[in-house]
Amino acid sequence: MVTRNGGDPKIARSVTSCAECLAWGQMYAQGVCLACYNLSARYRDCVGVCPACLRKVPLKDGYCRLCWCQARLDRAAEAENARDRVVLAPYLPRVRYHQLFLADNYQPHAPPRETARRRGTKGRPPKPVPPPAFRPNPVGAQLTLLTGLPRTYRPASVDLRSVVAPDNPWLAWALHMACTTAETYGFDPTVRRALNRNLIMLLATHADGDLVQVSDFHRLIRRHGGALVHVLDILSTMGILFDDRPPIFDTWLAAKLDGLAPAIAHHVEQWAHTLHDGGPRQRARAPTTAMAYLNAARPALLAWSACHDHLREITRNEVLAHLADLRGEPRAIALVGLRSLFEWARRNNVIFRDPCARIRDAAKQRRIWQRLSDEEIAAVLRAADTTAARLCVALAAVYAARPRQIRALTLEDVDLGNRRIVLAGRSLPLDELTATMLHEWLDHRRVRWPRTANPHLLVSKESALRTGAVSGVFLQNLRGLTATLERLRIDRQLEEAITCGADPLHLAVVFGITDTTAIRWARNARQLASPPPPHSTTDNPPE
Prior knowledge:
Elements: E1 2-5, E2 8-17, E3 24-26, H1 34-42, E4 47-49, E5 56-58, H2 65-78, H3 169-185, H4 189-203, E6 212-213, H5 218-223, H6 228-238, E7 241-242, H7 248-256, H8 262-277, H9 287-305, H10 316-324, H11 328-347, H12 374-383, H13 387-399, H14 403-407, E8 414-415, E9 420-423, E10 426-429, H15 432-448, H16 485-499, H17 504-511, H18 515-529
Parallel strand pairs: 6-7
Antiparallel strand pairs: 1-2, 2-3, 4-5, 8-9, 9-10
Helix pairs in contact: 3-4, 8-9, 9-11, 13-15, 13-16, 16-18, 17-18
């Protein structure tokens, strides 16, 4: 039994019972409802046996989602006072039965919503366009007596369609910039109204010389569903924004240094900042590189902090003992991180001798990739239940496109009239399957975001309000499956290598890869095509 999604006869989802919460409705990837899919993504490392229903499923704070839903029902029926109507944890151990429900419709705490009035000629008048405004002329202003004190903001409930905005030249300038930005990027009316309300809240009493601190309002805007990035862009353009939030890297680094010896933590912090920001005669590395190095070295540093107070006390034998417990890629990454740390310490005279000197890693062995099975490919086709997902699968399985290349595609790269597509700078002929997927996605894109100014082919509800590419998470629609987009790309290159007789020149021309990469895929194809070596038997040893 199938149902249509959003009235599109080409998008079908099965209607059955959820594999985790047993709710009946439309199932998404891996046969679960949307709520269980999101819970599994957040608590992917918390799979266990629920103590209430004794099922092995993803757990949130020790209990499965079905038991959480039943506990809310029990609380609504058994709560006797205001505190019992708020606290939910005591009802979880009491769950002995379950009331089934429909998927994506279970909202026991939500009040009934009135039917929204249709907008039209008889509804509210359209919001008037704000008059042109510019930066106010500097005038004499009273200086602030006490600086650094936090300011309290309250959400504004002003609707500019029926109420005039407060008379403030800074607010008039901000509303004019908000209207221009919304027209440029094609903001939805809901986004426009939220942006105007936030600007009224922040600038209704703004005076010349004041600065708006981000720490005073960013939590309030996020709590009420506003887009913080648009507010920050306008205030930054106006020159009245003071972003006093701590950098994300510093917050992450403080959590990673917890548990280390004080002297070791001090030098590790300096090393991490040198990697992230650069230093004398050392260029800055990517933030992901600095984080990967520290994550690789942290287990060893935690173990050494239990018996050492300084990095100079670490010996070569202790480094070898830590690496002896690791194999393969984790050992190589840990050695690279420790080498970077102790090389920095030796260069800055923190230690006398580098304990990682002359420690060699084992020769890296290239992995022999195997072809995907028919069952794994069929699982991908079932999981790709959206138009964007099917387009990504087609690009990876037909053209061996990497995820970052798919994200970088723009509308100018697709020429449906001449049936050509420009992928990674190479103009390729467009096959029938990919052309069909492109037609479906472009129709959906035009209906869903008709006024977006984003030039990229793939857009999401976040990137449609900007001009950048979609995030990497947007393409991770095959979570939990063996055949990811990267594996589909590898399988396509292996298929071509086996078909052409493992010819590196042919692979380099078809996929636009380097000669060393083509040789590696050709070698992989030869090993897959060659028969396995005969196994010698011990019963009849050779004479």
